[in-house]
User: Which sequence fits this backbone?
């Protein structure tokens, strides 16, 4: 088995800014310089899987723009292709370089460049094939409010998010643990501006990984938003290329059945390299050197970690 990179030139069709086509185009160009050239084209699976998450009125609203419907459906098809190959043991894991992204999309509304929730739809597909428990880890700088909302009452999905706060969309407070049967299965870890590698490592080692090991997922979805990189123009976090390799590796040690789905990341110089670091993590390829610039933690960062740990231990 291998790591699959799901890509089609159709992912470049969607016109938006700053969520622009060069985010993927330059990533593919960089991958080719690293001898990553065996891309997997999405299968045409249609729109039925979208209905597992989104209401008919939402799908009809997107459908009023035929191009937007096509582009958003193609992103979903890329994710379903990865999931299908994973469940058939034809891939060990995959990175889907799809756009538009999805983690802000709710069942009945879109937002933040997102129209269909790719990660949520992929989760529902995996569960329909017998993968009962799914871990979703969202390290995009912006809280994945759509994904969190969709699964907030569902104990079969453990949703973990590290996100900058304050920042759009303003959700994901540390005391948002989910609701009903899903109480405790939403782990929201807001971090202050300028938070970097050291704090993320602590949050993974002391919260996300212990919860994941106890949850024992059948598969993992990464909402891979690299706008948490220190040079991203829309945020003020301080992750580095090495951070994405390390975080991916930590999740691989929980379960290597991982589907990473592209979310944000808007620095066109660093995004391709950060995406490459994720692929190397999925491949267990330690031959590459990635940029690492660990900045000292401030007291505010330490305090936010303490708050997150206190909230975490209420349920885990």
Assistant:
């Amino acid at each position: 088995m291998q790591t699959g990179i799901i890509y089609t030139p159709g992912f470049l069709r969607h016109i938006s800014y700053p969520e622009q086509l060069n985010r993927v185009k330059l990533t593919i160009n960089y991958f080719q310089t690293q001898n990553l050239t065996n891309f997997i084209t999405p299968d045409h699976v249609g729109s039925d899987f979208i209905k597992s998450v989104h209401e008919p009125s939402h799908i009809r609203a997107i459908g009023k723009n035929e191009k937007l419907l096509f582009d958003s459906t193609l992103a979903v098809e890329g994710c379903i292709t990865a999931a299908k190959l994973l469940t058939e043991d034809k891939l060990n894991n995959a990175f889907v370089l799809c756009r538009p992204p999805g983690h802000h999309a709710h069942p009945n509304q879109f937002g933040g460049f997102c129209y269909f929730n790719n990660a949520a739809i992929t989760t529902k597909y995996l569960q329909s094939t017998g993968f009962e428990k799914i871990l979703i880890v969202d390290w995009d700088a912006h809280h994945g409010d759509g994904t969190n909302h969709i699964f907030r009452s569902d104990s079969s999905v453990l949703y973990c998010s590290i996100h900058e706060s304050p920042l759009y969309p303003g959700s994901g407070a540390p005391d948002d643990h989910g609701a009903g049967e899903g109480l405790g299965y939403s782990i929201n870890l807001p971090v202050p501006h300028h938070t970097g590698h050291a704090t993320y490592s602590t949050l993974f080692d002391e919260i996300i990984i212990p919860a994941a090991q106890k949850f024992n997922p059948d598969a993992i979805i990464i909402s891979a938003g690299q706008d948490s990189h220190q040079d991203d123009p829309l945020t003020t976090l301080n992750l580095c290329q090495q951070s994405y390799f390390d975080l991916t590796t930590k999740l691989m040690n929980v379960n290597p059945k991982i589907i990473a789905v592209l979310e944000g990341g808007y620095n066109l110089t660093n995004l391709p390299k950060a995406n490459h670091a994720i692929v190397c993590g999925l491949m267990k390829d330690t031959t590459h050197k990635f940029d690492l610039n660990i900045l000292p933690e401030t007291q505010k960062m330490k305090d936010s970690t303490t708050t997150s740990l206190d909230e975490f231990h209420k349920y885990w």
Summary: The longest strand covers residues 157-164. The radius of gyration is 18 Å.
